Amino acid sequence: MPFPKNFIFGTANADHQTEAYHSEREDVWDLWERSQGLTPRGQATDFWNRYDEDIASAAALGCKLFRFSVAWSRIEPEHGIFDHDALNHYRNVAECILKHGMRPMLTLHHFVWPVWLERDHGGMLGHDFPDIFARYAEKVAEALGDKIDWWITFNEPSQLTFGYIKPWWQNRYYMPPGLPRSSSVDAEAQAVGKLVPNLFSAHARARQKIKTLHPHTKVGVNPLITGFPTWLQMLLDWGACHRGLSESLFKFTTKEAIVSEYGAADLIIGGVTMDDQTLYESSDPYLRTGKAIIIRSDDTLNEISSLHVKSIAVIAIGNQPQSWKRDLPLASRKKLFRNYDDARDALSSGEVDAVYGDALYLLPPELINRSDFRFLKTCLSDEHYVALAPHGHAQLLAHVNQAIRDFQTDLRKYCDVAWISEPSNIISPSSLPTSLYEVFHGTDAPPKHIDSVHGIRRILKRGYLRVGIRIDAPGLSKQAPDPGLEFQLAKQIANQIFGDSSKIEIIPIEPIDRFHALESKRSWLNWAWRFWGTTCLIANSNWWYLGMAGKLATQLCPEEAIDSLDFVGLDYYWGLPTHRLHKFRLLEDAANGRFFRAPVWPRGLFHALQRLHRWFPKQELLIVENGCPPSAGGISRSQYLQSHLVEVEKAIAKGVPVRAYNWWSITSNREWGHPFDLNTDFGLHYIDLDNDPLLTRHPTPEAELLKKIIQKQQNDSTT
Fold it and tell me: Which of 3, 585, 613, 637 gives 20 to 30 Å between its CA and that of 677?
């Protein structure tokens, strides 16, 4: 069945991801990226100045809908003071969309809000937040509401909870503002209990303000929906509708692991980055580092492009297979090695022309023949190293984190050496706050339970700490026999626990097998525990529409918010059918920005559309976001686009009134603090955000594919 005549194709972007950083108009994500050592947005795509170019590109594809967001921190830089120049700018954006034959969809709150709101008024938890937000919405509606067809008050409100939830398997909060270091599970539950009704009330009051000024405009929200089999989704929805049960489950699944796991090592300190894994519990970062390339000192090469068709040694572990696809010339020949010692030997003998990998391991200060090599390029990425422990050892990690904080002085000395030529802005100590409260006030309460022996009794009884360290780390490496950074950190941890830095046993581990030392026969119990927590807390986002349908307790969804919608919007990216539920960790990969691994299930979109139509039979449905990087879950972006549109057609054929489909996004974007690479690029037009000062837009094959799909829909509707 062809798409109906009035069906609209569109695309989208968001202010923080595309507009350049403005030092006098910071939002909370600017502070979060800086305080957490994440990738800042910088110039982003410069949409503020180049909006006409991107809007024209969308129109050239045949799109009839363009979604953008306004930056609250630009519009209201101080509490109660509105910038009319900023409002006029966004009016010009809306007029540009109309000029190109498209209809505007405007988002008021796309994950960001002003610093003053968080610092001075309690952020989204503040008692006055609903009225402050409604006033902001009214000012925007006064300035440009006559140009807007659809409004989104809150982008993916379900995701905002992760600024206040840190389940036991996560080391840090996924987004701002975070809670102080000593916050209990009860405190997290209390925060979410304030957030949810505040979001509902703020939405309802903002909608009322907008529709008073423009009665015919349509206001809604776009929760992020994860595809689950119908039987599981019904179970989750049933639990969400019983507040006592849902609150108990929340505390139950976030408090701690069900059992403590024990492997051959208590910890591993082996060059593991925050993005490498989701299987274990991790410490705070102990080092900020990046990918680099070394060559022989006598080699005359001076640019990465000079490695074209040359042989490069790579270490096939962790995130490196993805990163070398990003950083190295496509025509270069990659040769796999098990560790850095063997790779450097190959470089010395001329077997390879360069070695690619982590700067810390490529050329450590302790390397015996360090002068034989030099860096060709550094700062190719921005990553954080962490220590890992098996699940159920939060107490041990509390001691590790304290040792890391105490270790910063030694770390500063270690990194202040000549060999770190260029990457001084990356390879640096990293002591990260857990919340914006610490950023504002300069302090976060330390863990109250740091002096407890609970959780480390086995280690204390044994009398020493077992630490796994890679065989190519300084101290174990045949080429760098003197103890290096990770040896020093292991001693610091032992000193923190025992008061004696010698009470450690070093367990040599092969880089490729570095996680095996933590494996435990009891892990399946935590697997089941974590699955329940993941599906209940991370993946189930139906609570927004359950509230709109009047099915939630009034303490969570006040009566003023029930049925306060003019359309049903949704974002859909990933899903898991019944036979793949055991792969639920792939959803956590997606939540942490590892989109290459995200689980693709187009059928889940069909189920979501049918379910929402049953709940709101009189409302039209809009797919506000759908998209993926060049590949995800083993399928290409072209296949992803086509397969999801097939499910939309099936839903329409079943009588579901789907009105619009938006691809996310029109260009490459800054993806919320993640390094920019193909893994985080959802754009129909590619921009090399890190290396092209001109920010040139390059159409992708999917842009042409979408154009053909739209043309076919237009042709079918006229015949």
Answer: 585
Residue 496 token pair: 């923190």
Q: Tens of pLDDT along 61-111? A: 999 999 999 999 999 999 999 999 999 999 999 999 999 999 999 999 999
From CA 134, how far away is CA 114, in angstroms rounded?
A: 15
* 8 A C-beta contact, residue 113 and residue 129: no
* In the chain, domain spans: 8-252+526-718, 267-518
Topology of domain 8-252+526-718 in CATH is TIM Barrel (3.20.20)
Distance between CA 267 and CA 283 in Å, rounded?
10
- What is the rounded CA–CA span in Å between residue 518 and residue 514? 8
Cα(11)–Cα(696) distance, integer angstroms: 19
What is the C-alpha separation between 317 and 450, in angstroms, rounded? 34
Residue 61, CA distances (Å) to 54, 71, 395, 412, 647 in order: 11, 26, 55, 52, 21
- Cα dihedral sign, 155-157-159-160: positive
Give, rounded to a whole angstrom, the gap between the first and last alpha carbons of the chain.
Answer: 13
Tokens of 401: 């984190």
Residues 6+ apart with CB under 8 A from 694: none
φ and ψ of 639, to 5 deg: -65, -40
- Per DSSP, the three-state class of 361 is helix
Which amino acid would we find at residue 418? A
Q: Which token pair is 526?
A: 């935590």
Is the pLDDT at 449 greater than 90, yes or no?
no
Q: How far is CA 644 from CA 63, 241, 418, 573, 648, in A?
A: 17, 30, 52, 9, 6
Spatial contact of 62 and 666, defined as CB atoms under 8 Å apart: no
Give, as one character, the DSSP assignment of residue 233. Answer: H
The CA distances from residue 526 to 383, 530, 595, in Å, are: 28, 6, 24
Model confidence pLDDT, tens digit, residues 450-481: 445 556 888 999 999 999 999 998 889 989 88
Nearest partner of 471 among 462, 463, 480, judged by Cα: 480
Q: What class, spelled out in words, does domain 267-518 have in CATH? A: alpha beta
Task: Give dist(CA 276, CA 318) in Å, integer.
Answer: 5
- Residues near 232 by beta carbon (within 8 Å), at least 6 away in sequence: 535, 578, 581
Cα pseudo-dihedral 681, 686, 689, 694, rounded to 10: -170
Lowest mean pLDDT among 86-90, 452-456, 579-583, 617-621: 452-456
pTM across the whole model? 0.85
